[in-house]
């Protein structure tokens, strides 16, 4: 016997609001880490058709990676649109081509690897990403201020196979301004994309947890100068690690395209398990000395602790997304 259900508009609204409230309560009980504070941010939860979130059950351990020889990462900085100054001139084809002094970010990550015990190969050559067998040589792949359609079809497929095989991904700064037409990649970033930013300015970063490998050695708050990306959509199903206090931004948080900012919860670093792999993300990393381990700037030093912890945990060498 078929049953017909009829709902009034008032009843339907009450049901939706009640379900949202219950979900918020359940989420708060299950995870003591801070969450976005507005309903719009909470509802920004697109479906990418993969297992994702903070549950380690979303990780696939196929035994593809060996840490006995140390951590090895691939740094990818190819741009197909705007190019950040700290990347310097575009690199020649191949793996580990010559660098100039202007390639500050690449040189900085290599120096951080030497300081903290991980090996860095670097490239802007699509051929280096086109084969998953090549990517599986690395414990993590780092996208640093890539831009626009920086991957072709073969590289997209290869990256997806690598992540599904348990690979580690680190997305830094304009990795969020990359692959807008590749929904799976948006999910890899935590369900977020770059929209705009306000002026390059100093703000106060708040560390949300010190349980995680990326934030364990950070102070509870610290000053840093960056572009403070505004995002659409908003990260969801992730472990938020750090935010910027918009009240400390002298020129405000409104972006160049009119985004008003994220109010009292503006995340700048988070982590997640995604489609079998690990993913560590930060929107910071604009400055010319951001990656230079010889920088005397305290903000740079804290940022470097954050990304080194993120790299090593995404690579499986430290506990991930705690």
From TrEMBL:
Keyword set, alphabetical order: Signal
Statement: the UniProt record of this protein carries the keyword Signal: yes
Pfam families: ThuA
Signal peptide: 1-21
Source domain of life: Bacteria
InterPro entries in the record: Class_I_gatase-like (IPR029062), ThuA-like (IPR029010)
Gene3D superfamilies assigned: 3.40.50.880
Residues annotated as domain ThuA-like: 95-311
Protein name, as recorded: ThuA domain-containing protein
Organism: Angustibacter luteus
